[in-house]
Specification:
Elements: H1 8-30, H2 32-61, H3 74-80, H4 82-85, E1 90-92, E2 101-106, E3 120-126, E4 133-138
Parallel strand pairs: 1-2
Antiparallel strand pairs: 2-3, 3-4
Length: 141
């Protein structure tokens, strides 16, 4: 009677090959946390940009609608009105402590002045991992 199956040597070779593949792939998966942090901060920065754009449109229609972003520190205005602009995350001026908290700091530009409505400034958005991402904020009077 002829038996079918794998020999012990064939099984060992397959296990060794799988071990080598796992050892080469492991460093790629270990560093994904900073990539995920960057992607999360980039998503929040995009949400801030979209929310302030819609907020500007609301304020252009009615000066009582939306939220005023018209000070010399527009990024502080974004943090103050963060819960109303972006849902699901916490925007704060201090350092980020968790995956749902993002630090918003001043970038370039100011919303101060009567003619500032409609101008763009930048804010830096940083999560608890990764690097700062740029959010474009539109000033609203």
């Amino acid at each position: 009677m002829k038996q079918k199956g794998f020999t012990l040597i064939e099984l060992v070779v397959v296990i060794v090959i799988l071990g080598i593949l796992a050892a080469t792939a492991l460093p790629k998966f270990v560093d994904l946390s900073s990539d995920a942090g960057n992607a999360a901060a980039q998503g929040v920065a995009g949400s801030i940009a979209a929310a302030t754009s819609m907020n500007y449109a609301k304020r252009a229609v009615s000066s009582t609608a939306g939220y005023a972003i018209n000070t010399a520190t527009p990024c502080t205005d974004v943090v103050t009105n963060g819960a109303n602009l972006v849902q699901g995350v916490t925007l704060q001026a201090g350092a980020s402590a968790s995956s749902t908290q993002f630090q918003v700091t001043a970038g370039a530009g100011s919303c101060a002045g009567a003619a500032a409505a409609g101008t763009s400034v930048t804010c830096n958005v940083t999560g608890n991992k990764g690097t700062a991402q740029t959010a474009t904020v539109i000033c609203s009077g």
